[in-house]
């Protein structure tokens, strides 16, 4: 590290940039969902179960969050009627979280807000550059996943 406390090695710079962008994306998600009385955390869980019912553990693993934090969000969504728990067909010890019709309406409203936000941002961003960055991130993610799986972190 240099005297300005900024890391000089590429992996540290990369990691800090990703953390910063993630924070901004979460804040953007909160802005997008605020008028619908939701949050980016709720949107993430709704979005995951919008594709197919999933266990809390799988949602947490795929999102890189603690199972307990996803469980709390899922419980709130269930209490508000946006999601429900159903029996898992092959594992009686766990339940699947699935979207309710009310949850699908809320998720649709979030996606409408997101589409507007997306149009606003894309007027300022280069789509080709974003595609290249996404490809590079996917490549880094594949390498990290192999390492994490190897070391069982």
TrEMBL record:
Biological-process GO terms, alphabetical: response to stress
Alphabetically ordered keywords of this record: DNA-binding
Gene3D superfamilies tied to this protein: Winged helix-like DNA-binding domain superfamily/Winged helix DNA-binding domain
Pfam families: MarR_2
PROSITE patterns given in the database record: HTH_MARR_2 (PS50995)
Keyword DNA-binding: yes
MF-aspect GO terms: DNA binding; DNA-binding transcription factor activity
Domain HTH marR-type, residue spans: 1-142
Name this protein carries in UniProt: MarR family transcriptional regulator
Species name: Paenibacillus rigui
């Amino acid at each position: 590290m240099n005297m300005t406390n900024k890391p000089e090695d590429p992996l540290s710079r990369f990691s800090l940039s990703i953390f910063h962008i993630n924070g901004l994306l979460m804040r953007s998600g909160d802005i997008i969902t605020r008028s619908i009385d939701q949050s980016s955390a709720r949107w993430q869980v709704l979005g995951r179960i919008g594709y197919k019912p999933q266990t809390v553990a799988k949602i947490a693993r795929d999102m890189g969050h603690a199972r307990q934090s996803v469980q709390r969000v899922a419980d709130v969504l269930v209490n508000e009627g946006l999601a429900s728990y159903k029996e898992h067909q092959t594992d009686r010890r766990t339940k699947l979280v699935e979207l309710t019709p009310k949850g699908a309406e809320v998720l649709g409203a979030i996606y409408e807000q997101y589409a507007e936000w997306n149009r606003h941002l894309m007027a300022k961003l280069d789509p080709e550059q974003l595609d290249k960055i996404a490809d590079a991130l996917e490549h880094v993610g594949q390498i990290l996943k192999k390492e994490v799986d190897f070391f069982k972190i």
